[in-house]
């Protein structure tokens, strides 16, 4: 088929003669609205907007500006005001060296140049978050939110990203030489960025650089980027720099960065550097002596794995030849640890190897152990039976006695196994754990076909009935309840199952009005059952409108906050439809708890989330802690009446995706903009 469309165009022109006029009638003025980016670049009067000071430290100042060419916020770095010409040159070397390194875990440099006054600058990506040093200090201080966000496995994930960044730099022949917690930036979405390459050095064709297939023109130019003005001076941070960096004219290599990575990992485990002292001279002497306590002896109250400790101590070896020979080898060791294997540095024996294997494969180990005992039991039985047959001719009495002993042994083992199964089922009921109800229903139903012990059947049937009950299979729940003597605690569930099962088929959900009536009955007896019924109703019920779901949400709010209609207004909650979406007002209501206490993700436990609100009014309500509404999404939020928000809880606004907040907080506006720059804060009067 030909690609020439001229005939088709001619035919369309004849059949629709006015079609071309639709486009030809556009005036030159109209076109201006079709090319705003092109016109803005043609009319550009500058590259960056006015500078907003952010911070200063080390040898540079950081400002926040907008790049008018790409319309994005960037960080602009400048040397200190009293910087010498040599310091300005070193500043530009840092910017250009960083720009040569393009990796997801290295802070990107976008531009470099001189401003209108002839002062050097470079721009880089502007990100929010904390330095690793600030995070560790929060953990050391016992900050609960940071403890939840940064457990050890999460810290190790961040550390692996930094290893990737250093490995990449080494592949380009670049050493960092100042790896420390304050030079690692952790963003709110898992970003880990290695910053401050001011002490970096470019190696030229040395054996300790990891060779990769990189064109020569893509490699950094050491003749320009290496700092030639400070040769022979000690460069680095005491406590984190390798012994060869401490001595004057020491020969640095990729293993110097590996030492710093080991010191960084040590800091993450014990919350302090591997070497510390009252003066820099003392720290230098201890570093040169290799006097480092293993993490397990340097920290109290926390367990440090022997495998991870061996990795840290190998990276911190005094002699570079005893350290890991590459960052990739270091990273491979961490991968072994994270996957549950013994590390090479650990030199683990067969006992440790076996213990780690059991931890990696607990289910397989249980199956193997049970199979072993069953085979052993069968083998013992077979042995006694064969032995009995051989001696049958000798004495019938002895044969009978041996068979009796065997019978007793098998009976005792059977009873022990039976008790174990029953105890497991009892644990489920005692914990009132009804998660994954469909899967548990299948498993217990299958096991019941083989179970003969009356006590075990009683326990499993009662648990099975409750699982059917929470997913509204009332007929099957009633059938299970009818086969057992129901515990007094669950008699109400049995009666409700029989009542609702008479009028509803299984796998058919109650409507909202029926659900409200049922929840009001259930919560009077067992609240936990009500929580799970609401959880399945919200997550698995066919889609309902927010207006239909609102009564169910209200009864769950009353249940969570221990309220009844005698303790609050008799009027029901109402949704208001606005142009942007739905609005719910809980102003003046005594609600302070919105998350059901069941072990599911918060977004599934928050009873307001199914309403998919645009705005929520919690002014002068019972809310005292923003974390209580975590798990939902809302564009606008009214928290008038709330007086204070701890600084570490400002992350909630980002979790909620909230864009506008009406408030009467005591914090000044500048403080609010600093800690939640993405939010528009509107101050209102806190009138009762």
From TrEMBL:
Q: Which residues form the Protein kinase domain?
A: 48-338
Keywords of this entry:
ATP-binding, Kinase, Membrane, Nucleotide-binding, Transferase, Transmembrane, Transmembrane helix
| Pfam families membership | Pkinase
Q: Where are the transmembrane segments?
A: 363-387
Q: Does the keyword ATP-binding apply?
A: yes
Q: Which InterPro entries match?
A: Kinase-like_dom_sf, Prot_kinase_dom, Ser/Thr_kinase_AS
Q: Does the keyword Nucleotide-binding apply?
A: yes
GO MF terms on file? Answer: ATP binding; protein serine/threonine kinase activity
Q: What is this protein called?
A: Serine/threonine-protein kinase PknD
Origin species:
Pontiella sulfatireligans
Q: What is the lineage of its organism?
A: Bacteria, Pseudomonadati, Kiritimatiellota, Kiritimatiellia, Kiritimatiellales
Task: Point out the gene that encodes the protein.
Answer: pknD_24
């Amino acid at each position: 088929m030909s690609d020439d469309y001229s005939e088709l165009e001619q035919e369309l022109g004849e059949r629709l003669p006015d079609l071309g006029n639709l486009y030809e009638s556009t005036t030159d003025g109209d076109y201006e609205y079709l090319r705003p980016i092109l016109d803005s670049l043609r009319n550009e009067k500058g590259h960056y907007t006015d500078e907003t000071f952010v911070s200063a430290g080390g040898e540079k100042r950081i400002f926040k500006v907008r790049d008018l060419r790409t319309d994005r916020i960037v960080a602009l770095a400048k040397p200190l005001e009293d910087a010498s010409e040599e310091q300005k040159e070193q500043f530009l070397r840092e910017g250009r060296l960083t720009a040569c390194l393009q990796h997801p875990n290295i802070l990107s440099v976008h531009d470099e140049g001189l401003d209108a006054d002839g002062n050097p600058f470079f721009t880089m990506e502007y990100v929010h978050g904390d330095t690793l040093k600030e995070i560790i200090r929060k953990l050391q201080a016992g900050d609960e939110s940071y403890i939840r966000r940064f457990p050890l496995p999460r810290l190790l994930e961040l550390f692996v990203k930094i290893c990737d960044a250093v490995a990449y730099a080494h592949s380009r022949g670049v050493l960092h030489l100042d790896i420390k917690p304050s030079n690692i930036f952790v963003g709110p979405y898992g970003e880990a960025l290695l910053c401050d390459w001011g002490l970096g050095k470019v190696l030229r064709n040395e054996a300790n650089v990891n060779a990769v297939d990189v064109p020569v023109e893509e490699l950094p130019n050491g003749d320009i980027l290496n700092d030639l003005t400070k040769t022979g001076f000690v460069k680095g941070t005491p406590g984190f720099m390798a012994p060869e960096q401490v001595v004057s004219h020491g020969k640095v290599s990729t293993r110097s960065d590996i030492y710093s990575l080991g010191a960084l990992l040590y800091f993450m485990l014990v919350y302090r550097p591997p070497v510390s002292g009252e003066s820099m001279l003392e720290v230098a002497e201890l570093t040169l002596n290799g006097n480092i306590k293993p993490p397990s002896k340097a920290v109290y109250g926390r367990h440090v794995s022997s495998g991870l400790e061996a990795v840290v101590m190998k990276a911190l070896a005094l002699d570079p030849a005893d350290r890991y020979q590459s960052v990739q080898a270091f990273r491979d060791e961490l991968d072994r640890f994270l996957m549950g294997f013994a590390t090479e540095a650990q030199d683990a024996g067969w006992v440790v190897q076996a213990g780690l294997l059991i931890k990696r494969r607990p289910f397989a180990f249980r199956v193997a152990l049970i199979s072993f005992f069953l085979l052993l039991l069968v083998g013992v039985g077979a042995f006694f039976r064969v032995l009995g047959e051989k001696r049958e001719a000798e004495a019938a009495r002895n044969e009978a006695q041996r068979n009796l002993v065997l019978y007793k042994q098998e009976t005792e083992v059977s009873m022990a196994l039976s008790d174990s199964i029953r105890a497991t089922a009892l644990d489920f009921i005692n914990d009132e754990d009804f998660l994954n109800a469909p899967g548990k229903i299948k498993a217990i139903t299958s096991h019941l076909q083989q179970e003969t012990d009356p006590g075990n059947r009683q326990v499993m049937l009662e648990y099975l009935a409750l699982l059917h009950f929470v997913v509204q299979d009332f007929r099957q729940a009633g059938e299970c309840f009818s086969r057992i003597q129901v515990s007094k605690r669950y008699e109400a569930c049995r009666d409700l199952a029989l009542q609702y099962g008479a009028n509803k088929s299984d796998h058919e959900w109650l409507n909202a009005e029926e659900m409200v009536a049922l929840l009001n009955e259930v919560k009077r007896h067992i609240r936990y059952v009500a929580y799970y019924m609401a959880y399945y109703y919200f997550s698995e019920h066919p889609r309902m409108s927010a207006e239909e779901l609102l009564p169910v949400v209200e009864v769950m709010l009353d249940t969570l906050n221990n309220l009844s209609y005698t303790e609050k207004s008799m009027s029901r909650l109402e949704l208001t439809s606005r142009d942007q979406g739905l609005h719910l007002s809980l102003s003046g209501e005594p609600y302070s708890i919105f998350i059901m206490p069941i072990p599911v993700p918060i977004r599934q436990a928050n009873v307001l989330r199914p309403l998919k609100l645009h705005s929520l009014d919690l002014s002068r309500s019972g809310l005292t802690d923003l974390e209580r509404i975590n798990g939902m999404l809302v564009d606008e939020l009214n928290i008038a009446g709330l007086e204070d928000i701890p600084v570490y809880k400002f992350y909630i606004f980002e979790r909620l995706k909230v864009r506008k907040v009406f408030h009467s907080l005591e914090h000044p506006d500048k403080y609010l903009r600093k800690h939640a720059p993405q939010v528009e804060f509107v101050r209102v009067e806190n009138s009762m």
